[in-house]
Design a protein that fits this description.
The protein is of the alpha/beta class. It contains 17 helices and nine strands. The chain folds into two domains: 7-301, TIM Barrel (Alpha-Beta Barrel), CATH 3.20.20.80; 304-491, no CATH class. The strands form two sheets. Strands 1-2-3-4-5-6-7 form a seven-stranded parallel beta sheet. The longest helix has 36 residues, at 405-440.
Length: 493
């Protein structure tokens, strides 16, 4: 699954597909993803058709994402027995017909209902719509698009069960169980890619409808491939479970817009993905040994290979401690910093691990109403992320002679950036949580002000010559967060 939309990159993706034995490519993200957009951007549609033709020659099935409903407004006329309702569904189907007509070499489409201009569960609609339950609405709508893609154009159609709440996921499961002519496309996690979420209850829940699993191999939420995160053990943990539930395959996202795993140390995740698809019982150690040798020339089981493996493993622990708070997604800002305290506070609720795992409820309560003991636990984790990042940077220096200079320098540079980021997140956590305590007890106000100033200083020291735009984005969000914390603290809100 790719988001990048420039021709050289997409050609490099085709080459990577050969290298890794991939048979399925989804073009999403920055490319057109609403049916109407394919006619609005004919040059991009022509490029996708070229990629589909090239892919077909190398045995690669190519798909595009579409998002439905692509309409704005909730009061829709949906009854196909009325002129207005018929016109609505004709318009939606005709948009898909036009898109598929531009790209005849596509194998099919991948459809989402979540994160669209008007989400299906938010449509009030007419009496026809109101008489249907949410699962019935989902099934009815899916069949309208399936009839065009599958029955008329003889394409394949995947439906993503991407959602924003447990209720929405339950509706999708109930609406599409045993549905003919589609393949379900489910994240291994129940919502977004989150290390601490339980397995998705949608896995194995669609009855006779086939199902594949989505993984993020590029780290949208843990570094965007600017830091070397390894998912080797994590992929195996999730895939072993998904296979036990009957999953037929895996789709791996390898970028987020222009932030790409190809060519970065995080490409290890593409390698692991490929190995586990062919030989799912391969051990994590075998995967590390194979990658370290094929990519970096380090002899399997040698001290140098073992050291690089441990660096990769520690990187994963660093991001768990850095980007998460006691196993909760706070902040959740696509690897960035929140721009306000409210953003982080709302994430604790809206993306709460306890939504999916009731056993996490006591921790949720501690985070929503923190005590000094809770804050001490949080800050211990952030300090540990800095310690582990520092250990990695110290140990990579012992591999300078064992790795090719062209490989060693970018890897080390990413570890430098990882340590700098861990320090920024540590100082951000110190400022945020001491401010939360000070809002409950003004005796801590001076400590909170000092922590905010330290965060501001650490933030402005962050730099990375390889990712200046990414750093600038972090700093813009961070500056807003600093100002908001000062305002909240002074106002006593």
């Amino acid at each position: 699954m790719v988001h990048g939309n420039d021709r050289p990159y997409l050609l490099s993706v085709l080459d990577a597909a050969k290298r890794y034995g991939i048979n399925h490519l989804e073009i999403a993200g920055m490319n057109p993803t609403f049916s109407e957009e394919f006619t609005q951007y004919p040059k991009q549609s022509a490029l996708i058709e070229e990629i589909a033709q090239r892919g077909k020659k190398q045995g690669l099935d190519v798909y595009v994402w579409i998002r439905e409903f692509n309409v704005r407004g909730r009061d829709l006329k949906t009854d196909p027995a009325t002129p207005e309702g018929k016109a609505f569904w004709d318009g939606r189907q005709n948009a898909l017909r036009a898109a598929l007509g531009l790209m005849p070499s596509l194998t099919g489409v991948v459809m989402s209902y979540g994160s669209t201009p008007t989400e299906i569960w938010n449509v009030r609609g007419d009496s026809f719509w109101q008489q249907m339950t949410p699962p019935q609405r989902i099934r009815f709508s899916t069949e309208r698009f399936r009839d065009v893609a599958v029955r008329e154009f003889h394409k394949e159609m995947f439906v993503r069960d991407f959602n924003h709440s447990p209720n929405q996921l339950h509706w999708l499961v109930d609406g599409l169980r045993d549905e003919d002519g589609i393949i379900m496309h489910s994240k291994a996690e129940p919502q977004d890619w989150q290390f601490f979420y339980p397995h998705s209850f949608a896995q194995g829940a669609y009855g006779k409808t086939p199902q594949v699993v989505e993984f993020d191999l590029a780290g949208e939420y843990w570094g965007c491939s600017f830091i070397p995160v390894s998912l080797v053990e994590y992929l195996k943990y999730r895939w072993d479970y998904d296979r036990s539930k009957g999953a037929k395959g895996v789709v791996g996202r390898i970028d987020r817009d222009n932030d790409r795993a190809l060519g970065a140390p995080s490409e290890i995740n593409l390698y692991a993905h490929s190995i586990l698809m062919g030989k799912p019982d391969t051990s994590a150690q075998e995967i590390y040994d194979g990658w370290n040798f094929s990519r970096y020339g380090l002899k399997p089981k040698s001290p140098e290979s073992n050291r690089l493996t441990e660096i990769y493993r520690r990187c994963t622990e660093v991001v768990k401690l850095q980007y998460y708070t006691l196993g909760f997604w706070a902040p959740k800002a696509q690897t960035s910093l929140p721009d306000s305290m409210r953003s982080m506070e709302s994430t604790l609720k809206s993306k709460s691990t306890a939504q999916w795992d009731p056993a996490a409820k006591p921790t949720e309560a501690l985070l929503l109403d923190p005590t000094p003991h809770t804050v001490a636990r949080i800050l211990h984790d952030k300090a540990e992320s800095v310690r582990l990042a520092g250990q990695n940077l110290a140990e990579i220096s012992t591999l300078e002679g064992a790795m090719r200079p062209a490989d060693y320098k970018p890897f080390r540079d990413q570890l430098v950036f990882m340590l700098d980021q861990a320090k920024v997140w540590e100082s951000m956590a110190q400022a945020f949580w001491t401010t939360k305590l000070a809002l409950k007890n003004t005796a801590g106000k001076d400590a909170a002000h000092s922590a905010i100033e330290a965060f501001d200083t650490q933030l402005h020291g962050l730099q990375n010559s390889d990712a200046p735009q990414f750093v600038a984005h972090l700093q813009r969000s961070g500056v807003k967060l600093v100002a908001d914390m000062k305002r909240r603290l002074d106002a006593g809100e």
